[in-house]
Amino acid sequence: MTASRIPSAQVNVDSQPRFHLPAPTATDGWAEAVAEEADGGVAADIRIFLDAQLGEGDVLVDLDPGFGFVALGAATAPGGLPTVLVRTADSDRLTQLRAAADEVAAVIEDAPADRAALVKLVDTRLDEQGRLFVHVNSAEAASTLTTFREHAESGRLVALCIGDAHRSPSWANARQALTKAGYVACGIVEQQGQAVLTPQGDRPTAPVIALPSELVNGG
What we know:
The protein is an alpha/beta fold. It is built from 9 helices and 10 strands. The chain has helices at 30-38, 44-53, 69-75, 91-102, 115-125, 141-147, 149-153, 171-181, 213-217; strands at residues 5-7, 20-22, 59-62, 83-86, 108-110, 132-136, 157-162, 183-191, 194-199, 208-212. It has an 8-stranded mixed β-sheet with strand order 5-4-3-6-7-10-8-9. A two-stranded antiparallel ribbon has the order 1-2.
């Protein structure tokens, strides 16, 4: 029997789980996610990257929340709590995620489905020096770049985190859109015991973290 709440792979300074994720109402895939979380974490590469980047005044927009691992990981970021906006058609799941975040004094908000309303909300939550991060699937990468075009052009859209890039048939179109917008598909590799971001090839083998080319080329 699967537990109704599972501890996060991410831990705090006391080595305690940063959050406990409640089981969803629809449990398809939940058992697999529980096993993956116990074995290093669901979407571990993306969560490692966001942990290193997110801070007070930043915003994460989660357009592909799944069970909510990335959203809750971001909401409990060690560098300072950002604003986390989650888009989900399941209002009950959003309520569950909010309750889980509230247990650790973090906040998760609803991301409007309307793109103009979403951009407006992001702008109200971003601090003057705040940065924008988006978690999205391959199929929606191109439209997301269009939605946040001004943020990309101003350098405030720091990364698109695409968890299904290594398995999605939509990846080729996503990559084309990223390249056109000046973003480079990177992935986390281990070098001398350190997690390092490096460009991925045409066919990524892991989740993609797409960064502006000037950040990649500038080191």
